[in-house]
Amino acid sequence: MTDNLPTRNDDPQALQTALEQRVAFILDESKRQGASACEVVVSHNTGLSVGVRQGEVENVEFNRDQGFGITLYSGQRKGSASTSDTSDEAIRSAIEAALVIARHASEDPFAGLADPDLMARDLPDLDLYHPWELGAEEAIQRALDSEAAALSLDSRLSSDGSHVSSHQGCRVYGNSNGFIGSSIGTRHSVATLTIAADAQGMQRDYWYGVDRIAQRLPTAEALGRKAAERTLSRLGARSIKTAKVPVLFAADQAAGLLGHLVGAIAGGAVYRQSTFLLDALGQPVFPEWVTIDERPHLKQALGSTAFDGDGLATREKSFIERGVLQSWILGTYSGRKLGLPSTANAGGVNNLHVSCNVPGGMDVLLKEMGTGLLVTELMGQGVNGVTGDYSRGAGGFWVENGEIAFPVKEVTIAGNLRDMFANLRCVGADEERRGNYLTGSWLVDGMTVGGE
């Protein structure tokens, strides 16, 4: 493979420039070979990951990955090819292959690039690139320190692993409508997993941190202690009787509920008529106090981006406003299928934010709930996106009079997502920021908790 692109330790601006030049070459070559339109996605990522367990190094991985995804159009026919080789010869061969596919594909009246007038023009600097000068030995030591901090808390604990990783990458998208956009970013993470055992059995839990800026990650000691405390708190779990009660989803679990909403209002699910919210546009879906909006230009956030997968400028917008569903989530293709303009969400949403209606976090929500179930872990895949039926295994704690009473085991929670959204009583201010969904904990009324 011919590859003279800059490496992890080179100037990131040089990498951006080199990839943009390759994209421009692909666009020119595609036109020369007879494509009526072309779009290219390039990713180039480098990183370090280490893992330890019980004081021993399990893995040290250095990665350097790159890929060019080339999509060509011959009228309304589309063909795609990919390559990891940056040489002119390899790129020309990939273009030839994509054109052969396009010329034999069926026509799709909705296929093609977005309108040239809609292309992003001014791309804001979102401050996403913050490299971590982390060597393998330092990463190993940090993982070992986190594991040691966890195990020092109680003799009943053993380690299920501790991990440290640091990655940086560049993404470029370009098309033959004259758009080439690029961004560079970093993503660093730490995690520690522990197991605790007593006469009643074994329990497992973890804690983790993810950020673009390494200095904002939890320290090794804080991470280890948090993982250990969470695991120890699950010892002595009991069964509970089946009941219909409020359920409080911790913020990181509530993010999954938000993900089910995203899936239900995504354009693809709508035009396929495979969503339980098919008739909900313009209708109340949540209580009136709920607003769910997208904030793609937050500085340093994990989900930030200046342009979507079609080259359109991202923008702030509300999908839920005062409880009412305002818009589907659309890219150019799904918008055309539905006869609607793109919402600049080709590739998904970016920093989806949920309003809160209580001033505090978990302590306030526990008191608001009174008696019910606090969910800190969800298991299984029992969610039907067509009907909204929801049934999953859960781990967490039984709550009485606003206080945690005991950990639970062998519990299922069930309901329907449409009812769960409508019965959302509170969202806390304990906002989860370790991903693309920015939400506090959710208190949902009237769910069936299955136990004995």
SSE diagram, text form:
Elements: H1 12-32, E1 37-53, E2 56-74, E3 77-83, H2 88-104, H3 136-151, E4 157-175, E5 179-198, E6 201-211, H4 220-232, E7 243-249, H5 251-265, H6 267-271, E8 292-294, E9 317-321, E10 324-325, H7 332-338, E11 352-354, H8 362-369, E12 372-379, E13 389-400, E14 403-416, H9 417-422, E15 424-427, E16 437-438, E17 442-450
Parallel strand pairs: 7-12, 11-16
Antiparallel strand pairs: 1-2, 1-4, 2-3, 4-5, 5-6, 7-17, 8-9, 8-11, 9-10, 12-13, 13-14, 14-17, 15-17
Helix pairs in contact: 3-4
Walk me through this protein's architecture:
By secondary structure, this protein is of the alpha+beta class. The chain has two domains: 12-232, PmbA/TldD superfamily (PmbA/TldD fold); 237-452, no CATH class. The chain is 24% helix and 36% strand. It has nine helices and 17 strands. The strands form three sheets. Strands 3-2-1-4-5-6 form a six-stranded antiparallel beta sheet. The longest helix has 21 residues, at 12-32. It is globular and about 70 Å long.
